[in-house]
Every structure is written in C-alpha cells, then in structure tokens.
From TrEMBL:
It comes from Salibacterium halotolerans. Residues 52-106 are annotated as: Disordered. This is Uncharacterized protein. It comes from the Bacteria. Residues 75-94 have a biased composition (Acidic residues). Residues 65-74 have a biased composition (Low complexity).
Amino acid sequence: MIISKYLLFEGGNFEIIVSRYGEEVCVMRRKTVLAGILPLTMASLLMACSDEAGSSNENEDNNETTEQQEVPAAESEDVDAEASMDAAEDAAEQPETKEDDALSEYSSEDIEYARVWRQLGANQEIEALYVRHISSGEPLNPDDETSAVYPEDVVQLSGARLVDGSVTYSSNGDGTINKYNVPLRWDGKNPAGREVYTEIIDNTKTIRINPGEDEEIIRLINLLQ
C-alpha cells in the first residue's frame, strides 16, 4: 500500500511517500522547495518516521514477550490438571487396597460363600453356614427318579436349621451368579414332575453379588462348615 501526501510551500511542494511491506519505511522526494525551508522540513519528517518505526518495533517486542509469558502459564495449568487426576486415581484405589488387606488371609471361595449368603440368605443370624458342592449331572431332587439334573456344577449354602433357608447357585467368576430356585428339602411323597424341574433350570436368575462390609463378611466366613 502506498500513501502519498503533498506539503505546499511558497514556490513549490514536497512529496512524502510511506510504503508498508512488513516494515514501515519513509521516503522523501523533493520537487520544488525553497532552499531555506528544506533542511528544517527534512529533519522534522525524519524524526516523525523514526518515532513511528520505533513505536512499531516496541509493539512487536511487547507482543512476543506476552506470548512467551502465556506459554509457561498454559504448561503450568496442564501440569496441575495432570497432578489432580493422579491424586484422584490414587484416592479411588485406596478403598480397594484396604479391602484386599482385610480379606487377604481368606480364600476367594470362602469370600464368595459369605457374600452370597449375606445378600441372599434368608436368615443372617445363623449358628453355622454349611457348604455343599453338587456336580453337574446330579438330580435336582435325589428322591425322584423323574427329576431333571443340574446342567453345571453348583454350590448349595444352608444354615443349621431348615428355617434358615438355602441358596443354590453356580458362579460365573465375574461377580455374578446363576441362582437356582430349588428347596433345601423336597416332598418325597409327591414328586414335583419333570415340568417343574425343567422350569427351575430354564428360569435361573443371574444376580450380581455386592462386596458387602468386610466385618460382616469375615463373621460369616468364620461360620463356614
């Protein structure tokens, strides 16, 4: 971009050309000027151009300084955010670590039995917790020749008394179980019938078992027989 201005004096004029191509440059071109006025005019114009160029350079330096200051500030914010995330992850891992410490001396099977009974057992105030392993292929009702058989290995938990109830299930190994709705004792005089057994097998329920309180789980583990 070229900007031209003309200053008129007695007997002639003076042309100023200012060109901008990345930096500001002042060029003076004399046409017809009185000799006595030229030195003073040129000196004034040179000072004005020098001030303008200096102001432009100062603004560029200030912009560079501001950008340099903003970069460390942004890096500092990223570091603080990363540190906060690490602290949150550490805090989330602490409860699991405490649980592992409290139950570390017990086997995973015993912990599972206690948790299943704690969530599904009919009576929590039992005197003993009995564990019976039933293999795949064994009948649901041993006293009935028409009984269907278990399609997988199952565990049957029960209390010392009939009123304590029972829980029959298979473990999926991922915190869930398949619960079979079978009674602890069958009525041997009145066979249930194949349809009843088939319905029990076809309608097992998948249930997620909660961890529960460590103290309660340990209490039930100590009752295992």
